[in-house]
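Could someone model pyridoxal-5'-phosphate with this protein?
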Amino acid sequence: MRVYNFSAGPSMLPLEVLERVQRDIVDYRGVGMSVMEMSHRSKPYEEINARAEALLRELMNIPDDYDVLFVQGGATNQFSAVPLNIGTGSRKADYVISGNFSQKAFEEGARFVDAKIAASSQDKNFTYIPKLSEKSFRSDADYVHICYNNTIFGTRFTAAPDTGKIPLVADMSSMILSEEINVKDFSLIYAGAQKNIGPAGVTVVIVKHDLTNRADPKCPVMLRYADQVKNKSLYNTPPCFSTYVVAEVLQYLKERGGIPAVQKINERKAKKLYDYIDASDFYSNSVEKSCRSLMNVPFVSPDKELDDMFVKQAATRGLVSIKGHRLVGGMRASIYNAMPEEGVDALIAFMDEFAKNNG
Ligand SMILES: *Cc1c(COP(=O)(O)O)cnc(C)c1O
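Reply:
Sure, complex below.
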C-alpha cells in the first residue's frame, strides 16, 4: 500500500511517474536496456538529457540567455560552486540568513569570498523573512544569495528582493516548480532535485550565460559552469537515471497544465492546512502569516509528549515522516507537488481526531 509521505526530502514522486518508470525499467522504449545501463554518450540518453532541459525551459519560461545544467553534488555543492564561479570580481558576497540552509551557504561562501550577512531573521528563530531593499546590500557585491523557501522553518519569499544591479542567486531546492517565478529576476537559481523535481542525485542549475565565464582559476572542473555548459552537462558520467526520472516528472507536470495549474493546487492544499491549524486551539504554527511556505508546514501540539504520540499514531494511518526537524521540533508536513490533495485531507482528518482524543 502506498502511504502519504510527508518527508522533507527525498520526498514523494507522482504515482503516474513511478509507473512510467516501471514500464521503462527493463527495456527503455525498445532500446533493449534500462536507462541505468545506457552509455551517457548514446543517442537515447542524449535525447533524455535534451528533453529534460527543453521541458524545464518550457515549464519555467527560461530565457535563451540562461544556461540549464544538470549536475551532481546536491544543492550543497552549489554553496561552493557559486562563490567559485561568480564571486570573482570584488570578491564580496552578501547573504540573507533566513534559516539553516542559507546559514550553511554563507559559511561555505566565507571560505572563498568576503561573505557578509546582509540581513537575518535569527532573532525570532527564523519565523519570518527579513525586509530587504537595495540598500541592504553592498553596491559592489558580486552577488546576493537568498534561500527562497526555508525547508526547515517553513517560510518563503513571495517575491525576489530588489538587488539593483547586483546578481541575485537563489537556492530554490524546496520550491522550484511549485509556483510561478520570473526567472529574469534572478541571475542564478539552483535546486537539488529530491524535493520537487525527482530523485536524489541530480541538481538543477539555471544560470545567466554571461556569468558562466568568470570562474576562479582554482575552481574544480566539476564545479565550473563553463565546462558543464560547453559539454551540455555531460563533462563526465552524469546521474543518468535521476535525470531521466526528472524528465518524466517534467513531462507529467506539463500534461497537468504546467506550473500555473500546479500552483493553484499547491495554494489550495496549503490554505486548507493553515486554515485548520489557525482555527484549532490544539495546534499552532509560529510563522508570520505573510511568510508562510506553501511547501513545508511546521506545527506543534500543546506539548512535546503529544507531538511524539502524534508522529507515532499518524504513521499507523499511513501518514509518514511527519516528525519536525530537530531545530524546530513538533511536526512538519512537507506537501510538495507530488503530495495529492487527498493526502492533505487525510492529514487534517487525523489531526482533528487526535485533537479530540487528546485535547
Ligand atoms: C535540502 C536542501 C538543501 C540541501 O540539499 P542537498 O541536495 O542535500 O545538498 C539545500 N537547500 C535547501 C533549501 C534545501 O531544502
